[in-house]
Design goal:
BUG; alpha/beta; globular; 2 domains; D-Maltodextrin-Binding Protein, domain 2; 343 residues; Tripartite tricarboxylate transporter substrate binding protein; disordered N terminus
């Protein structure tokens, strides 16, 4: 694999730097929209009653945008300052562990994605926390798909052509994903099992590196979330072959789903839920659920979410708990079928 990748590094294009600036501009706009200071935020902060909202990833990503949007809009709904706190590292485990170990009074919240909620527990033997045992889901914060993307100069016009090429090629076919155990990595293994194809995963620390190497010609394809890949697609640098969610993305409506590409019943949506430490009083959880739903239903929030490619509809506390439980069972079946064992 290393030899093949080194050989492909010679084919870097001049477009890599451009993508970085486009992504930074889009993220700056989204962050500015999400952190617009509302009158209620200042009043709540002056009262000294603070809720910590742990965002388990660095500033600027899709989860950060969602978290800062909730902090800005939720403060007004709750009458308390909701203060975002980025605690990145270990695929989100460091930040969400802070939430799991907090006092169970609803004063420390977290944005937990599919990884920290479900898939990491299926791929790691020694999880520092578990959903349901240490964490309580409060509200669904929207979903979005991964995109199967290639360079615009790639010879593959659609997903069936790419899968056919991967089946027929003697040398390895490379796909960039975050670390093994990440939702994108499991999605790739899910795709390989469902399509009966062998694609080699190349693990990266961040999506920016994946994007750069895909544009540079070192990768045949990549799995990138809609918020991450959208700017490069709109700039004509990447071609999206399919979205892994069950439905098409509202911001990229021309991109077909994997199901439409011939893989029946395929669904690998990404999502976030609001969580707190297990044992928080039920009235507090209900209040937080209502505040989150009302916050994300506002016109300002819907604009931010749509721009980020996030599909949102309100869930009750019971619906959120049922959703997380169902996703846990569904992804357990997927990982077993793909032969993924906890390590």
């Amino acid at each position: 694999m290393e030899g093949g990748l080194r050989g492909r590094r010679r084919r870097r294009t001049a477009m890599t730097g451009t993508t970085g600036s486009i992504s930074l501009r889009r993220r700056a706009v989204l962050s500015a929209m999400a952190t617009a200071v509302l009158p209620g935020f200042a009043a709540a902060a002056a009262g000294g009653e603070v809720i910590r909202l742990v965002i388990p990833y660095p500033v600027g990503g899709g989860t950060d945008i969602i978290g800062r949007l909730l902090a800005a809009t939720g403060s007004e709904r709750l009458g308390r300052a909701v203060v975002p706190e980025n605690r990145g590292g270990a695929d989100g485990l460091i930040g969400i562990r802070v939430v799991a170990q907090a006092r169970p009074d609803g004063s420390v919240l977290g944005i937990s994605g599919i990884g920290t909620s479900v898939t990491l527990a299926l791929t790691q033997k020694n999880m520092p926390f578990l959903m349901g045992r240490d964490l309580e889901p409060i509200a669904h914060l929207g979903a979005f798909g991964n995109l199967i993307v290639v360079h615009t100069q790639s010879p593959y016009p659609d997903l069936p052509a790419l899968l056919a090429a991967a089946r027929g090629r003697s040398e390895p076919f490379f796909c960039g994903t975050p670390a093994q155990g990440s939702p994108s990595y499991i999605t790739l293994r899910y795709l390989c099992t469902a399509a009966q194809v062998d694609i080699s995963s190349v693990s990266y620390q961040g999506h920016g590196q994946i994007l750069n190497d895909l544009l540079g010609g070192q990768l045949d394809m990549a799995l990138l979330s809609v918020p991450i890949a959208r700017a490069a697609i709109e700039a004509g640098q990447l071609r999206a072959l399919a979205v892994t969610s069950a439905e098409r993305s509202s911001v990229l409506p021309d991109v077909p789903t994997v199901r439409e590409g011939g893989i029946d019943d395929f669904d690998a949506s990404l999502w976030n839920v609001l969580v707190t430490a297990k044992g928080a009083p039920e009235p507090v959880i209900e209040q937080l659920n209502e505040a989150a739903n009302a916050s994300f239903a506002s016109a300002h929030a819907r604009e931010v979410l749509h721009t980020a490619g996030v599909e949102f509809r309100p869930y009750t506390v019971a619906e959120t708990r049922a959703f997380v439980a169902q996703e846990g069972e569904r992804w357990r079946r997927i990982t077993r079928a793909a032969g993924i064992e906890p390590a």
